[in-house]
Write a structure and sequence with these properties.
heterodimer, A: mainly alpha, globular, B: mainly alpha, 3-stranded antiparallel beta sheet, 6 strands
Amino acid sequence: MVVKIIEIIASPIIAFVIGIFFLGLSRKIMARIHWRYGPPLTQPLIDVIKLFTQRSVSHGGIFNLGIILSLGGSIVVVLFLPVGQLAPLSGSGGMLVILYLMLLGPLGIALSGGEAANPNTSIGISRKLILALGYEVPLLFILLSVMTHYETISIVKIVEEQRSAAWSLFSLPLLLPGIAYLLILPAILGIRPFEVVQAPQEISSGPMVEYGGVFLALAQIQHAFSLFIGIALFVNLFLGGASNPAIFFLKMLVVFIVELFINAAFPRLRVEQAVKYLWRWPTLVAFIGLIAILIIR
Amino acid sequence: MRLELLLIIAFGGAFLTYFLGKISHRVRDYFTVFVSCALTGLVAYLYGNDFEKIFYLGFLGIPLHLRLNMLSWFFAVTVAGVGALSIIFSLRYIRERERTDFYYLMMGLVNAGMLGIVLSGDLVSFYIFWEIMSWSAFLLISYNRGPALAAGMKYIVMSVVGSVCMLIGMLSLYASYETLVITELSVHIASASHGYVLFLLLLFFVAFGIKNAVWPFHTWLPPAHSEAPSPFSAVLSGILVRMGMYGFLVFFYAILGLKLFLGLGRGLYSFHHILAWIGAINIVIPTFIAMLQNDSKRLLAWHGVGQGGYMVLGTVLGTPLGLAGGTFHIVNHTSYIALLFLVVGAVEYRTKGVRDLNSLGGLIKKMPITFIGALVGSCGLIGVPLTNGFVSKWLIYKTLILGGHPLLAFAALIGTWGTILSLYKFLHNMFLGQLPEKYKNIEKAPLSMQFPIIVFSLIIILFGILPGIPLKVINAIGTSFGLETLNVTIWGISSETGTLNTINIFVAIVAACIIVWLISKAGKKSIPVAQADSYAAGASVPVDKYHYTVDFYNPLYRMIAPYLRDFVDEFYMKLAKWTRGLCNGVRRVYVGDVGYYVIYIIFFLALLIFIQLKWSIW
């Protein structure tokens, strides 16, 4: 019981630290690729603390509550995801619950941004939802292939199975879904070439535009958590999870740096182009993988 | 407590309401609310009873059976509950309209008819009540006149086709076994040949599929739901359509039985597997069509079609978990779709009949309770954790994934994403975004409209956090069909292949949100600002000139709209056009003038004589 409580407290903190570190790291690495010096690694944390001392405007009840729901939902997802051996709540419903809890983050932001009555917010949310529909098609094929292959809906079992055999990414039938996941990961994380939602130069950060002060701080933390969730899911499903949080972090770091290079190298697509791409190549690869698994069974 | 008393109250109450309305509208309103609430109470009181009663006064010499078991109780209590809440909602909604007495009479008859259906123990009484329900529903759908008349006509034509199929099936059953009592049929039919069972299945599939709006028989539903008065739309989409589901359950499991139903055909070509694929199509296409709608009720109506797919998908696979999920989804769907139709009704009432999503907006500040209802209902329809929709969908997905049907599971899961997109549009375009100038002085919904909205919202959340309450009843239904008993607890379902614990999820979400809220308290307090005071990158946001809820998903719309035509409806409309052309041709022949007929007769006789002279056949 005590162990469980410690786990429940520990895993969101780990996720927060890793997520915030990744935000800082991404600015640093992007700066170096641009031949700049870049801000210190702790800059996002400093920003969050600073934002707590500033005032924000508020557009009403749902504007305030939506962002809280969004961050709360993201924290809960972390409790269901194995981080190393820490997986405090994964026994309460497995993969399907994670899939649905991952809704709460975007839903909260969408509700909150909707009440802001700002054109940029509305455009951003509409893009976010369209993009999500775009990557959800391949993502569902990927998750279903993994679940069908291991014949379980529990993510802890999937991680355990990989420990006794090879990583999913290198076991043949799951290779294709693994590649498809890598292809859509930038869209899940919302980085270039799929940076259509925030698009600072175009729609002034989209859903974030009306936030300031505490709300912007919460939105930043939520962003950190969503980075963590997107990568952690890949590490758990395809890279065999990890036996302790440190190795888990290293695996995440490798994936994240690869994604950063993609982010640095590509320009931004328009949302239709993004959806067309997502519904074409990753979907095809994931679908072939799923069919292969079905045939092998 | 006697079952016939229940039906007498239901039917008698409906007619008495009509006559009381001639005396005083106020008395009629109290009376109809009293009757509908009393029925709910009586049905609820009958929980757990299991009995059958036979009346020999019979129709065509066939004795009439009334019976109550767990399945019929489950449906009866839903029928009575939704009926009562929608009648309470109607009090204000319908007050200023014409023909209110007629409206209440028909509402009463629809509810009584549905109660009769679920309580009847033989197919003859089933059919009689089915027709009462269908025809009173027709009168209510076309209550608004104008486009509603066409919608009602479309409904009744398809409904009659379904009834005819059912009648043929019944006659065939009676000719074979000389009985139409459900329990007796289930004994006799065990020895039937597979060909005969398939014939019956197809007939009853068409009969119930039309009512249940299963693809490709769904085309009557979108116009009917959007044109009917909103409180009746709630009943129609919530439970009346699901009488088709009840028919499926009774026919597939109570009459045919598990073994016969699952034994038809093999592997991918088995009957229930094909039905499951129809269910999958039924989820994906309507849900994506819903995304493109701009009429709030039509959007919900398409979801009514789409959600039916989940029920079919869950129930036809014949596993305990799937049946539990599908059956649970019926009552969940009832609660949130009825809630959403009532929300639209409240908005429609306050904005004087506006249903166009492109011309609403910002109503959250004016109608907060209605917004909460819309939010809870939308979350239920999407299946967000903490709502009942999540639990039933979880059960269905788990059945599909562990049963080795990942493609069916994909259809079900992607349907959820279509639902999210369309329902966010629904919420955003009605309640969020800019409040147009013309709605500045709108009032919040009247109390008699808020009450049903609040009750439905509470039910959705209660069943989402404590799904064990309805699942206990559903488990008993499954057991009565001969399926294994599930290990149901108050917080969900536990099993070796994966446990669902809704209380853990609930506590985790609430605790996380409270912690985040407390953290946010540490920062400086925010300043409330006016709607127009927002940042637009240097430009000012024009007030009331610039409505960005229009074309909310335009990029996606341009991409997928060409593929999402309702081909089935187009085919039926063409069929109707050809039929009309054919009838017109026939009408040209039958002009009604005796002179023409004499000429036809002479020509015909001449033809006969000619044939005889030429070939001498006779």
